[in-house]
Structure formats: structure tokens, C-alpha cells
Amino acid sequence: MKHDYTLTAVVRTDLGKGASRRLRRANERVAAIVYGGNAEPLPIAIDKTALYKAIEEDSFYSSVININVEGGKPEQVIVRDLQRHPYKPLINHADFQRINANEEITLNVQLHFNNAEEAKGVKEDGGVLNVLHNEVEISALPKNLPEYLELDVAELALGETLHLSDIKTPEGVTLTALAHAEEGDEEANLAVVTVAHPAEEPEEDDEAAAEGEEKPEE
Questions:
Q1: Superfamily of chain region 5-98
Q2: How many Å apart are CA 34 and CA 198, to the nearest integer?
Q3: What is the CB-side half-sphere exposure of residue 69 using CA atoms within 13 A?
């Protein structure tokens, strides 16, 4: 199910590092900027509670977001960057890019691996499912943006690997790595997930084991 995200914001007229610190201390809004399209960059401050709730969902990062700017026109955007505090669970700044309904967008979307616990190589042969890429870059019109892409690994046997070309994309969605690659370019067709042999515990050397034994008291 496609999610609709709407955020409210006010225009920031007080700019600079000092202004950003004051905004953080007030603890009500997050500094952000909207850029791109045919309009000038717009510095805004977004309602903190709504933003923090939205970023908890993976789909937020691959969805069209509506920002209602007080005293201005609504903006349709995608999130491009969230600048996080180095050690606190805080967002210091957010970057949003305007979209055009008739222009394709390039961004990363999450990969969901279906039947991971039922994978043939895991269930029957005791292998370990190794995810090599948990997101992929796609290109699509805004109306065609998927929240995520799915890859079924039920039939993946021990020692086998699935690649980008194994991902089924919805109509109107392309994987940029494959779209820009020349025909026969195997390097562009990245491995995404594999079932590998479990790492074996190193056997303790007999001599080392003997040295580790307690010596009898004299």
C-alpha cells in the first residue's frame, strides 16, 4: 500500500549556524531546505514530531512527500539527505528535492527478501543467507515510484547467487545499473544475495590444547 506523507513547515528567515542552534534548542522544528525545479532554494523549518515519525518508515525515503509551507504554496518533494547528529538520535538538517510529475527520478529503494528462512539452501543444507545489497538504485516517474522491490529467495540453493537481473521491477521502473550498462557487461549485474556455507569453527590444535590444560600440582 502506497503511503502518503504530508509535512508542515514555515519559511526560515533567520539563517546561519546561530539560527540553527536556536532552532534546535527550541526543539519544535528541524531546519531544512527545498531545492531544484525552476524555483529558488527555499529554507524552511519542518514540524519535528511529524518528521521523526515519518523517518521511522523505510517507505518515506522512496515516496513523494507533500510539504505544506505556511504562507506559501505546497511543495512536492523527495528526501535527498538527512544530516544526523554524530552521536545523538537527532536530525540536524534535511534536504528535499522538488519533483516534476513528467520527469524521472533516480533514487535508492529498499530490497525485501521474501522466504528468507525458507530458502532451499538454508532450510535443507544448513547454509547462511548473505545479503550483499539491501537497496538498489532505480529510475522512475514520480507516480511509478515503488516503496520497495521484492526478491523471492525460496529456491536459492547452497552456493547459488541472485543478481540485479533477477529482480522483477514494476512497469515504468528501471534498475539504473542495468539500464546504463552495455550489453554483456557482467560487472554491472551485481550480485545481490547468496546462500553460503556457514563459517566453520576453527579446530583447536592438539598441541595448543595440551598447553592449555592445567598442570598437576607438584
A1: Ribosomal Protein L25; Chain P (2.40.240.10)
A2: 47
A3: 16
